[in-house]
């Protein structure tokens, strides 16, 4: 169970990093569509 928790913790850090990149891409895409329109 403890091993599972540590793996889960690492996955959480990875998820937050991925989420940050995703948010940046989303805002960039929104800015792009605004300039196109």
Q: What does it look like?
A:
The chain is mostly helical. It has one domain (1-37). Helices cover 95% and strands 0% of the residues. It contains 1 helix and no strands. The protein has one helix at 2-36. The protein starts with a helix and ends with a helix. The model has no long low-confidence stretch (mean pLDDT 86).
List keywords for this structure.
37 residues, rod-shaped, mainly alpha, 95% helix
Helix amount, in percent?
A: over 70%
How confident is the prediction overall: mean pLDDT?
Answer: 86
Structural class: mainly alpha
Number of strands: 0
Overall, the morphology is rod-shaped
SSE inventory with pairings:
Layout: H1 2-36
Short characterization:
With 37 residues, the protein is mainly α.
């Amino acid at each position: 169970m403890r091993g599972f928790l540590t793996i889960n913790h690492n996955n959480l850090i990875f998820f937050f990093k991925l989420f940050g990149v995703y948010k940046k891409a989303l805002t960039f895409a929104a800015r792009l569509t605004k300039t196109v329109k």
